[in-house]
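anyone seen this seq b4? input:
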Amino acid sequence: MKLAEALAQRAAAVRQVEQLRSRVVGSARFQEGEEPAEDAAEVLARTEETLDELERLIRQINRTNSSAIVEGGGTLTDALARRDVLRLRHSVVTTAADAASGRGAVRQLRSELRMFSALPVAELRARADLLAKEIREVDTLIQRANWEIDLIED
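predicted toks r here
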């Protein structure tokens, strides 16, 4: 199985756990004289099975990510960390540029004090563009690796 398939199965398992949780909550209590919509104990047991499968998948994915070498020489885990930090960095830079540009601020009267930017907005926007490009490149590398790398089996 390819890593991408395992990632899709993990996402499906997480969704299924949430659905099962909702079903357990809906059937956990019922009014006297009525029957619950489902057997809460049975649904809870299915939830446990799904969680066991999810744990197995996560272990396999993590082992694969930490041992798979991708283009550039690092592991897939390194690339994931790089992408996460680039996304945060991009968010900080764009937020700073928005704040410095006064986005959303309107001066209503001429007598109001003028606001000045403490940061170079154009430079921040250019840096944000470069960061966005780097995010796309790292993300493409990760997506390619996900479809090329075989999942490490238990």
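The chain has two domains: 1-67, 69-147. The chain is about 70% helix and 0% strand. kinda curious what u guys think
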